[in-house]
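An instance noted here:
***
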Amino acid sequence: MTFWLVVRTLVSGIVILYLQVLLVPNIAVGGVTPNLFLGWIVYQVWRKPASMLIPMIFLLGICYDLTMPAMLGLQTTLFILLAVGVDEFHRPLEKDSYITMGISLGLACVLYSLFIYIVYGILTGFTLSLFFTFWGMIFYNLIASAVMTALLISISHLKLDFRHG
C-alpha cells in the first residue's frame, strides 16, 4: 500500500462526495436521488485492499452523513457494511471478471435500497408510495452505479504522460 495509492483513492472519494452533494440532487427522479458512492465502493473494493478502504469509507461516510443530520450515521454504517459484504463476496470469485463485478454492484444496490426502505418504513410507516420509491431507488441506483463504475474503469485505463516537450 503506497502513499500515492491512498491519496489517489481519497481524492477520488472526495470528488464523488462533492458530486453526490452538489450535483446529484439536481437529477432526482420521483424523489429518488441516486447514490454515486455505491459504484465507487464496489469498484474500489475490487481494486484495492479492504484494510485501506474501510477507514476511508468511514471518513467519507461521516462527511456525507453531515449533509443529512437527521440520519447521522446511517450512510456510514451502510457504506461499511456494503464494503465488507462486497469484499467477502468477491474473494472466492474471479477478481478480473466484469460479470461478477456487475453482480456485486446489483447486490450492493438491492441491499442498500432494502436497508433504506426498512429505516424509512420504521420512521414514516410502510406505505405504498414508499414501496414504489424502493423499487425506483433500486433501478436508479443500479443505473447510476453502473455508469459510475464504467467511468472509473475507463479512467483507470488511461495513461497520462506529463512530459514537457
